[in-house]
Amino acid sequence: MPVGKRIYLKRQMPDPDVVAGFKEIPASNTADCMERNSAMNPRVKLMSSPDHEMVGPAFTVHTRAGDNLAIYAALRFCQPGDVIVIDDEGDTTRSLIGEVMMSYLRDQKKIAGIVVDGPIRDIDNLRNWKLPIYATSTTPGGPYKDGPGEVNVPIACGNISVNPGDVILGDTDGVICIPRQDAAEILPKARAFHKQDDAKAIAFSKGEVDLSWVDKSLEDKGFDIIDDIYRP
């Protein structure tokens, strides 16, 4: 999709209570309640050392590959608690943001986190930050500052569609996107799944689990179970 020159100042925002409700639920449990298709590609990975999950409404940025002028616009217009989500058009050659800009976002704008589908830099310092920072890689190579770029438009990040105001949830496993219009319905399901998952882990640890469904599923799907070694 071509990158335009549009900056939207308003978004449809999720219910703050719903956003807060996801803070104690692992991203994996929530993703399992969404047909397991909400997780960003593993190339988008945690680069810092937060002591909490990242949760907040998406403030989206679509940059020209390797250009961060639109990210500077995000510095101007993002709000406390936002998660800045950046689509870099798949570029892997230039860092889009480093310690200087992130210091402003952390200390002045009080964002909840940042997700970059592209490289960052200054990792020696950023890796120790409590601000959740996700990116694909690092490089000392800096960005252009010419544009074009867009703010608060639909983007793709980590192969997942992200709309402005969607709920972004990230932990040490990675990042998922919860569509804003579905978040209130998904939250109670994720809470229940998380509770069941804890109980399931205890049961598996104690060997108190019925795996007969595995045998039936293998049979139904036509697996051959051969009581012998493999011979070419």
Automatic annotation (TrEMBL):
* Record protein name field: Putative 4-hydroxy-4-methyl-2-oxoglutarate aldolase
Phylogenetic classification of the source organism: Bacteria, Bacillati, Bacillota, Bacilli, Lactobacillales
Sites binding substrate sit at G98, E99, V100, M101, R121
Q: Which cofactor does it need?
A: a divalent metal cation; Mg(2+)
The UniProt entry, under PANTHER family, shows: 4-HYDROXY-4-METHYL-2-OXOGLUTARATE ALDOLASE 3-RELATED (PTHR33254)
Q: Which Gene3D superfamilies match?
A: Ribonuclease E inhibitor RraA/RraA-like (3.50.30.40)
Q: Which family does it belong to?
A: Belongs to the class II aldolase/RraA-like family.
Any one Pfam family here would be RraA-like
Q: How does it assemble?
A: Homotrimer.
Q: Per UniProt, which keywords does this protein have?
A: Magnesium, Metal-binding
Which top EC class applies here? lyase
Read off the SUPFAM superfamilies from this record: RraA-like
| TM region positions | none
| Physiological role | Catalyzes the aldol cleavage of 4-hydroxy-4-methyl-2-oxoglutarate (HMG) into 2 molecules of pyruvate. Also contains a secondary oxaloacetate (OAA) decarboxylase activity due to the common pyruvate enolate transition state formed following C-C bond cleavage in the retro-aldol and decarboxylation reactions.
